Amino acid sequence: MATCDAWRTSCCLLRAPHPPPAPPSTLPPPLPPQLLDLLKSVSRSFYLSIRLLPAGLRQPVAIAYLLARASDTIADTSELPARERATMLELFMGLIEGAQPPGSVEDISAWFAPFQRNEDEHALMVALPQCFAWMAQLGPQDLDAVREVLASITRGQQLDVERFGEPATIASLQSPGELDEYTWLVAGSVGEFWTRMCFRHLPDFSNLPEERMLELAKSYGKGLQLVNILRDVGEDLAAGRCYLPAHELAAAGVAPGDRIMNAAALQPVWQKWLHLAQQRLDDGMLYASAVKPRRVRAASALPALLGARTLALLRADGLAGAMAHRVKMDRTQVQGLLLRLALTLASPASLAAQYRRMGQGQ
Fold first, then answer.
1. Which residues contact 21 (CB under 8 A, 6 or more apart)?
2. Equal fold, 32-166 vs 176-362
3. Which of 174, 208, 257, 273 sits CB 3.0–4.6 Å from 290 for a disulfide?
């Protein structure tokens, strides 16, 4: 009940004044309840951001996210050989581009759903045909934008399978350039997609020009993915993946092939990328502060606020703690953050104050 009350309060207080009703022919279709349920089950934090968006933006962004999660699920189904997953990702990409028979999605759904132990991931794979049906209902410009961002994300998943597809051996990215490319493919491209969609759907979106917002969005997205990488370093090593560059590990005296790495030796490398993640979250807050509609400003700032808190938890635990367990923000803290966003109407000054607070672990 407390969760519902906090969410209801935040939605009411962040709601912008109602614009004049649009003619019936221009009103966007409501999000299907099944789509919202799927979104909430696979990512509660992104679901919160989606709910803050204007109606015309919710459907294309939500569908893009669900299909991106589906490609991630395909890539991560380690019970299947890497070659088979790579083949299915090619088929998935053909479906996104409209170059495969629609019935192929049924094959992917039927093949991958039984391997999902997580019930939410299982439900997503079962609903994959419906997700493609929802995508097909988008307008031409939105459909092109969704296809473009999914092409980048799926390419990132394909690289993951190629590099880390055989968990019996551990592999590492080779250079900072490979890490930068990966974070752009799976997250920086999402920031650019979000920005282009907002400029298209919201005529008075930002105080900054589109080119500058795209630069900040790219950096912001890459920073969020770095936070994920730094948070999941222990789990990734156990699964045979290391996203930290091999030559940096070697310079620190760490063998990339070691599943159990010396935390003290690895610390300088980890700290370097932690610092860069913080800088890129700072870009995210510059981005959010430039957004004019307050609900979209809140939605844009929320990932940076959560990311700042995650970085604070990582600093408090240290690398050894991050390798031992996955840090996670408490749900009551998320509720408190949403309520503060609501009470302050997500003003730029209040967002800056909350960002500092989150970064200090408060």
1. none
2. yes
3. 208
